[in-house]
Amino acid sequence: MRPSLRDLYRTRRSVRVAVELSATLALVFGISAYQSRHHLRGAVPEAPLRTLDGGTTALAAWRGRTTVLEVWAPWCTVCKVQTDNLARARGWLGARANVISVAAAYDDVADVRRAMRDHHIDVPVLLGDEGFTRRMGVRAFPTVFVLDAQGRVVSSTQGYTSTLGLVLRAWWYG
Description:
Blueprint: H1 5-11, H2 13-35, E1 42-43, E2 49-51, E3 56-57, E4 66-72, H3 77-93, E5 97-103, H4 109-118, E6 125-127, H5 130-136, E7 143-147, E8 152-158, H6 163-173
Parallel strand pairs: 4-5, 5-6
Antiparallel strand pairs: 1-8, 2-3, 2-6, 4-7, 7-8
């Protein structure tokens, strides 16, 4: 007689690990999908974003390659922890993808500059406003979007993302 799945689960460690890993991954992906349900999908708005030197630019300037775009706030503790991951992802991805960030929910540009200095932020930083975060569907910080080479949002997640998570998203959609 063939053993049942229940018997295999109880007696074989490899089956237990496979079942528990599958359940954990399903839970993680389910939570991520739920959290990102309001995020923008498709074409990114062409509204201009301010640069730190007072100029303007648009996300269209980064078309042509996959772009990892993090939206963060200077006061956000998780954003501070994720800063190193973004910098490492930029190094690992090299010319394969753009890695940029948009600071939002700040009182003064000095707050953004201070956060950049204190946390050694070395990726290009643009300045977003409430309209930008509303159009992108950002409800929490940090939020990471992956844009394809045509500038369309193809993936998003909110909350802490590891370096490997950032790189794999860029490779998967690149």
